[in-house]
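Need C-alpha cells for this chain, all 114 residues.
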Amino acid sequence: MPSQIELYEEMNRFSSRMAAAARAGDWEHLIELERGIRSLRDALLAIADEGSEATTDLARKHSLIQRILEDDAEVRRHTEPWMERILYFLGNGQSHRELHLAPAAGTGESAPPG
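Here are the C-alpha cells for all 114 residues:
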C-alpha cells in the first residue's frame, strides 16, 4: 500500500492535469481525472495517520496540499462560470416552460406557445 506522501504526490499530479484540462475546456478529461483523484482521496482516508512523520515529510505534505489547493482554485475559475451559465439557462428554461404551461389569466386556458 502506498504511503500518505506517495498518495499526496499522485494527487498533485492528477490535480495539475485537472487544471490543464479545465484551462483547455476538456470537460470529459476533467471528469475522468476527478474520478481518479477521488479514488486517491478515498485511499488516503483509508490508511491510518502516520503520526511519526519526519519534519521533511510534513513540509513536503504541506507543499503538496498547497499545490493541490491552488490547482483546485484554477479548476474552479474555469468551471464555475460555465456552471453559472448552465444554471441560468436551466433556470430561464424552467421559467419559460412554466409560463407556457400556466393557465391564461382568468380564462382557464393555457397560454399559447411562444
